[in-house]
């Protein structure tokens, strides 16, 4: 088996579709629905669902669930809007749950 020298990626744990780059991690200290989650600046090969307001640990946010584009597994959510000034940095960013992604090319 040949070694891979591509970029370090995260893939959907269900179907191995590439969904984000390791270099796009902003923080590893987030809480998802099912445990730890990572905040990413970008995601790829995902589908963004409808927007809805949710009360999260850090206040009211408009978020949209993020699904794997291949298998439709829910991977996390996208922050569309933060109502608290201190949370504005999250807007346009993605939460991917650690339990739903796996490392590739490490």
From TrEMBL:
<protein>
    <recommendedName>
        <fullName>Protein yippee-like</fullName>
    </recommendedName>
</protein>
<dbReference type="InterPro" id="IPR039058">
    <property type="entry name" value="Yippee_fam"/>
</dbReference>
<dbReference type="InterPro" id="IPR034751">
    <property type="entry name" value="Yippee"/>
</dbReference>
<comment type="similarity">
    <text>Belongs to the yippee family.</text>
</comment>
<dbReference type="GO" id="GO:0046872">
    <property type="term" value="F:metal ion binding"/>
</dbReference>
<dbReference type="InterPro" id="IPR004910">
    <property type="entry name" value="Yippee/Mis18/Cereblon"/>
</dbReference>
<dbReference type="Pfam" id="PF03226">
    <property type="entry name" value="Yippee-Mis18"/>
</dbReference>
<keyword id="KW-0479">Metal-binding</keyword>
<keyword id="KW-0862">Zinc</keyword>
<feature type="domain" description="Yippee">
    <location>
        <begin position="8"/>
        <end position="105"/>
    </location>
</feature>
């Amino acid at each position: 088996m040949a070694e891979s020298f591509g970029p370090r990626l995260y893939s959907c744990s269900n179907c191995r579709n590439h969904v984000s780059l390791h270099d796009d991690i902003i923080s590893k200290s987030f809480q998802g629905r099912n445990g730890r989650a990572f905040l990413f600046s970008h995601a790829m090969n995902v589908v963004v669902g409808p927007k809805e307001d949710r009360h999260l640990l850090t206040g009211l946010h408009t978020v949209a669930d993020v699904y794997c584009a291949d298998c439709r597994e829910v991977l996390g959510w996208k922050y569309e809007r933060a109502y608290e000034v201190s949370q504005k940095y999250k807007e346009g960013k993605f939460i991917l749950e650690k339990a739903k992604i796996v490392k590739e090319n490490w």
